[in-house]
Design a protein that fits this description.
This is Histidine kinase/HSP90-like ATPase domain-containing protein. It comes from Amycolatopsis albispora. Keywords: Kinase, Serine/threonine-protein kinase, Transferase. α2 packs antiparallel against α3. The chain is α+β, with helices and mostly antiparallel strands. It has 3 helices and 5 strands. It has a single domain, classed as Histidine kinase-like ATPase, C-terminal domain (Heat Shock Protein 90, 2-Layer Sandwich).
């Protein structure tokens, strides 16, 4: 099991990305799949940093959980902020994170409420 809770900053998201990669290496995931998991999780963490906590004051929490059992790897990213529907601007490279998460994983579950947003990313048959 993997679990970290940090203030939602870009620096912490980058550090958590590296820690997640190390944990996945220990599970024996092949390099390509490990890269997919890390990239999808980082996109979810970047969304927390960019969108969950707007306004003055310290960043709220970013929680990253990893669970591996029976060949399935599940990564959960959650915050205690408020969901804001992404704005898409013509010619913008922004707003592609959720689509990327769907492409890189077997399943994406998203739940948003007044208490925050949780994204669960699932890979089946991820490891032996």
């Amino acid at each position: 099991m993997f679990h970290h809770r940090e203030p939602a900053t870009a620096t912490n998201a980058s550090r958590l990305r590296a820690a997640l990669g190390a944990w996945l290496r220990g599970l024996g995931l092949n390099h390509d799949l490990r890269d997919d998991v890390v990239l999808a999780a980082y996109e979810a963490m970047a969304n927390v940093v960019d969108h969950a906590y707007r306004g003055p004051g310290p960043a709220g929490p970013l929680e990253l959980h990893g669970h591996a059992h029976g060949g399935t790897c599940t990564i959960t990213v959650s915050d205690r902020g408020r969901w804001r529907r992404p704005r898409t601007e013509s010619g913008s490279f922004r707003g592609r994170g959720l689509g990327m998460m769907h492409e890189l994983s077997d399943e994406v579950l998203m739940r948003s409420s007044e208490q925050g947003t949780t994204i669960r990313l699932i890979w089946r048959r991820a490891y032996a």
